[in-house]
Known about the structure:
The structure holds 2 protein chains of 2 kinds. Chain A is mainly beta. Chain A has strands spanning 5-7, 10-14, 19-24, 31-37, 44-49, 55-58, 61-65, 71-76, 85-92, 98-100, 104-109. In chain A, the strands form 2 sheets. In chain A, strands 2, 4, 5, 9, 10 and 11 form a 6-stranded mixed β-sheet that branches. A 5-stranded antiparallel β-sheet of chain A has the order 1-3-8-7-6, with no helix packed on it. Chain A starts with a strand and ends with a strand. In chain B, 0% of the residues lie in helices and 50% in strands. Chain B has strands at 4-7, 10-13, 19-25, 31-37, 43-49, 56-57, 68-72, 75-80, 89-96, 104-105, 109-113. Classes of the chains: A mainly beta, B mainly beta.
Amino acid sequence: TQLLEQSPQFLSIQEGENLTVYCNSSSVFSSLQWYRQEPGEGPVLLVTVVTGGEVKKLKRLTFQFGDARKDSSLHITAAQPGDTGLYLCAGAHNFNKFYFGSGTKLNVKP
Amino acid sequence: SAVISQKPSRDICQRGTSLTIQCQVDSQVTMMFWYRQQPGQSLTLIATANQGSEATYESGFVIDKFPISRPNLTFSTLTVSNMSPEDSSIYLCSAAARGLYGYTFGSGTRLTVV
């Protein structure tokens, strides 16, 4: 069973649309990270959140860590084809070892 | 952040043989990890590579099947032993100076066992 569940599992949208990806767990995490992975490459870190309720913005991406530090969301505004990829959340209990979520495959059509 | 070179990038191996994957980091890192990933799916942690001591394996993974070395703070290897088709997967190494600041990943080794 996956420690971190992501939803939706697949998302196909048109360029310019907004979307939100969710990452949920019954566990409390000391920190949570979001990664984006393209085929044939390793995941690339987008953001780390550590404080419950924290919101971070990275251009068109907004990340939120739940107040209880059990869940997180990633919101993309005006999606572009370059946003296409596999989005992964990863949580750690002691800032060291991270366990990855089930993944969300995003396809943004031009 | 650190840059990781992982090799080989892909290999096709016969069942029953072993393959060693190498991971070289361009700077000293405190933590190195090995993951397995089916294409398009999530990553499963295999083990933590500890410098100067035996690796720490996650549930479902054992040293006899996946021996790991980490002779120094910049290098680690993972061996997939006595391979079967079920071992076909992408294997990734990752490293971090401190986990809080995120992992850097190698580009992965795509292994096919025939």
